[in-house]
Amino acid sequence: AQKVTQAQTEISVVEKEDVTLDCVYETRDTTYYLFWYKQPPSGELVFLIRRNSFDEQNEISGRYSWNFQKSTSSFNFTITASQVVDSAVYFCALSENKRETSGSRLTFGEGTQLTVNP
Amino acid sequence: DVKVTQSSRYLVKRTGEKVFLECVQDMDHENMFWYRQDPGLGLRLIYFSYDVKMKEKGDIPEGYSVSREKKERFSLILESASTNQTSMYLCASSYEFGETQYFGPGTRLLVL
Fold first, then answer.
1. Is A92 in contact with A4 (CB distance < 8 Å)?
2. How close is the nearest chain B Cα to the Cα of A3, in Å?
3. Three-state SS string across A36-60, please?
4. Which residue of B lies nearest to A89 if distances are taken between CA atoms?
5. What pLDDT was estimated at residue B99?
6. Residue A67 has pLDDT above 70, yes or no
7. Radius of gyration for chain B, computed over Cα atoms and rounded to the nearest angstrom
8. Which chain B residues are Cβ-neighbours of A42 within 8 angstroms?
9. How far apart are CA B69 and CA A101, in angstroms?
10. pLDDT value at A98 more than 70
């Protein structure tokens, strides 16, 4: 069975600090996809990034960066120079390989509540 | 831009009522999903659909049913609402396997 673990339930930082959100996953599939979503207080899940299992290159997008390491089954997310607007719940998710139905089920971690204080 | 809309942001119902939650996507996506989100439990999949009139149970289908008569619309039905169905309900859609799921704004349902 697939599993995603976000061990950090809550993180609190001061503005301009760097912060890393951890994500560890388990799967027996060789082909899979990993995602990060942001959920601000309004409730809508906002897509941040998608990474397939064959692409271990790190990615940077502005103040956001992601470190994917298959050897440790981790897909960590770093926010550089955090801002108050980064305060949200962040979810890591894993997509199941279910080609026979193309269901593309997502298994979510329990989320990390990030609070950035001014 | 992908747009997923849900019929209500907030809903208050009484125990035993039949409740309909509607979700519409405008990107011609094949797959649609219903999740519920509860504190400490994360997001859990209730049902999903990979084609019109096709549906599959997720992890917690008990007490729910779904309907997908048109590709763009996926409805979640609570046949007889109970207080333990008070939750945040999130709809999502995706084009195919491995593609990103895009979420609607969510419906906060309170069952009294």
1. yes
2. 12
3. EEEECCCCCCEEEEEEECCCCCCEE
4. B42
5. 83
6. yes
7. 13
8. 105
9. 18
10. no
